[in-house]
Amino acid sequence: MSELAQDQPDAGSSMPASIILQKLHDEAPAGHFTLDWLMSNLQKQSFGLIMLVLAIVAVAPGVSVVGGLLLLIPAFQMIVGRSAPTFPRWIAARELPTRRLRTVVQRAITTLGYLEKMVYPRWPTPPGTTRRVIGFTVMLLSARLILTPIPLSNILPALVIALISLAYAEEDGLVLAIGLLIGLAIIAVDVAVIWEMVQGAKRIKLSI
User: Fold this and answer.
1) What integer pLDDT is reported at residue 12 of this predicted model?
2) Residue 99's closest CA among 60, 152, 67?
3) Count of domains in the chain?
4) Which residues pair with 85 in a beta bridge?
5) E strand or H helix that includes residue 206
6) How many angstroms separate the CA atoms of 42 and 51, rounded?
7) Phi, psi (deg, nearest 5) at residue 139
8) What's the pLDDT score for residue 11?
9) CB 155 within 8 A of CB 56
10) Which domain holds residue 150?
């Protein structure tokens, strides 16, 4: 594969994400699936498609932490400039429940069908820089998804990661920029809240 092809977000990916997800839904093993199976059914050079599926998994209650932890791996690999996502063998072979995957994927397919009418290649972005910015943003959102203990708090960061991943897979610089801005805004609000909590704790301590 040429260096130029490796630098494209999803080189060779022309099939809409909704069709790829429908194929995953229809062909998923009956009881459990593994990341090995997932990688073999997605284009292995596709950070966007793999993160999209993991973000969809992270929306579901009960497996959101698993999805968030798995998202950290491709996010870090994007930051360090890897050309394709890979998972350690002990993670790639671990079984995950197919029932939950089918449920969240089926719900996502209809939404993706509508989004794909508005998401299409435009506003080309620098491949290397774009990949690192996405990796950094997805890593922070994934950490927020994992560490926030409030019920349903996983939904917003997971949906933003899904939007970023879809835009990256479809090479849509406009929607990608919007998704990144929303993600960074969420992170900024979280930082501000944590800062106020720390300052409030200090004021309480000084007043005692």
Assistant:
1) 41
2) 60
3) 1
4) none
5) helix 173-207
6) 11
7) -65, -45
8) 42
9) no
10) 3-207
